[in-house]
Amino acid sequence: MSAKLSDLMPSLMDKEKDSSINFRDIINKYLYHWPLFIIGIAITMTAAFFYLQISSPVYEIKASIIIQDEKKDPDEKQKLQELDLLKSTKLVENEIEVLKSRNLILQVVNNLTLWVDYKQKNGLKTEDLYGVSPVKFKLIEPHGIIGDHKLTIKIKDNNSYFLEKSNGELKEISFNSNLENSFGVWKLEPQTNIKEFIGNEIKITITDPNKVAEDYQKLIDASLLNKLAPVVGLSVKDKVQERGKDVLNDLITTYNDITNAEKNRVTQSTLDFIKDRLESLATEVSSSEKNVEQFRSSRGLTDISSQAQIYLQNVQANDNKLNEVNVQLNIIDGIEHSLNTSQNVQTASASLANYPSLNSLIEKLSLLQLQRDKLLATTPETNPIYEPIDRQIRSARASIKENIQSIKSSLVAAKNKLQGYNSKYESSIQNIPGQERGLIDIKRQQSIKENLYTYLLQKREEMSLSYASAISNARIVDKAYVDNVKSSRKAIAYGSGLLLGLLLPVIFIGSRNKLSSRITTRMEIEDITGGPLFGELTYAKASSTLISLNKSNVVIGEEFRSIRTNLHFLKGKQDDGLVVLVTSSISNEGKSFVSSNLAHVLAISGKKTVILEMDLRKPKIANIFDLSIQKPGIYEYLTGQSPKEEIVQASNVHPNLSVISSGAFTSDPSELLGQDEIDSLIHWLKLNYNYIIIDTPPINLVTDAKILSRLNDVTLYIIRQAYTYKSLLLFIKSLIKEQQFPQMKFIFNGVKKGRYGYGHNYGNEYYKAINKDKKNFLGLSLSEFFKRF
Questions:
Q1: Nearest Cα to 483, choosing from 655, 244, 150?
Q2: Do 664 and 592 share a structural domain?
Q3: Measured distance CA(168)–CA(547) in Å, rounded
Q4: In the prediction, which pLDDT does 488 show?
Q5: Residue 600, SS3?
């Protein structure tokens, strides 16, 4: 186990190191362009400042109300059972949806005429004139859809104003004059403060009320503030304090008006039902009384004989019980009839005091029907929200029917039992005149009608009292008030400005680098080559190609020495000289620069070095070392005009460094480089020098370097940062795959530390050069400062 952990530790450490370096490279890439960030932040913060100057503050207006639970007072508990407390939260949530409903908010919009805006310019700001407008727009007769209309007026005096036409002309119009356009007939009415606005220009915007209602529906928030109490908090954000307060206050008022109207509608419906029943029962009671009167008068009955007194008392008591049973059966039949015909049964159910379970079920059904009626006021019947409540109504009806059957069976059994007692008593009073028995039967019917009539009269009074003393569904806890100007307004504006000021340069730099067609990082090279770079050369500003390896160029000097060390490792203990071919993809990537300076540092280290100017088309080496181009070189040797000993020149830079120039110009060097004489020359140089540096033309342009590749030991391929095209990486990859060049090593030239998030200046303070250029306040030369953009 320990062996496996030890194997994993190096790889994990390498991954952490790579991720740390990548993150640091990304940060450095953006920090290099710090002037862009300073300018970006300055611009966005200035924009945020002006935004705060011209924009109006946004106020948060709040209010709170208590939604009344469906609980009744002690008198009303005889009619409807108190709701279960567990259902109160659900009720409040339903009412919250009603408060946020589109129909309710549309009514508020129309009540306050929020679909008309009055504004005037006040410097850079546009001031909203809600509540203080000198004129009032009044739509007399609308035509079609109202909305998206703008009127520009200028107050002339107390009696007239100028209306701006579509062509810019002003037309004088008197206040209260009817005008007509595409959306209808309208007029402007002057207000009491009209004098204060004489000469001012006012813009009136007319918007579709439905769109305004939709906007406020998104702005208004309603939420339950306390789960233990049905307190609902309302809030809205508005730029005008008074408008926000008016919206919430009118929303509460409108909500109460609608809920009270719905309650009154349901109560009135119940009263109408009772009224109809009373009218019917009044006729029946009157008929029963007349029947008693007629029966007594026709038979001359005045009193019952003392002999049958005791029996009659028993019969009377039994009849009272039988009457009660019949009343209950009558009510049960009425309830059953109402259920079967889908009528409202809430009133009829309340008399069954001896059957609390049935009474509870009926009252529950009444509450569910009331809740459904409320929803119908604000929600279409096709809405899925009705499905659960309809399911509860069906369930309640089924339970009531089942309970009724049980009660009815019990009452029928009791009735049969009481009738049996009556038969027993009647058999005991066979001597009592038949007329008296007939009278009892008539009185029994009269008693039933009178009891039911009295009960309905009592319920009518109770419902009338409830109708007259209807309490609002929502009681105001806090009227609308301004909570605060959004305290984070400035912080958000400046924070957004700061964030945008940082983000825009990041996007600009990232997009510029992403869209660049040039190679900018070593990772792009290493991904293609599959290995690390052989060397890296920092961009150096020098007066000549052959740099002076003093303390002013110490960094790039050390980088050339690092390449020299790598070449020493490649050479190893090889006795003869190491042939190093220097090439690139295209011109101006720094082949001659690398060749000449690499040869220089090799010579300084005590190694005999010779540099061959094999770029016969565009030779540069002789000029770099300030040598005469008249001296014989490669061309003269290959054409047999000069022996190899005569073409070698001292470099005048270091005794260990020699130069073989290209010689005279030739238009077809490829044919010359293919001769065997070049093989003899390289063989001779390997015997006399430690390092032979060959400067060649670009591979992608001519074939000279490929012809010479048979002679070299190491190939140094130059890639210049922000110059070599990314498209050439596929060409380079093909060279590696074909192995046409031995030991191909890559040197990244002209690297600008930090500019592309790549490369670090570690150790630069140790080698810090004396820079005599004029510095800016951050220690950068002016040219370096502007390059950081």
A1: 244
A2: yes
A3: 73
A4: 54
A5: helix
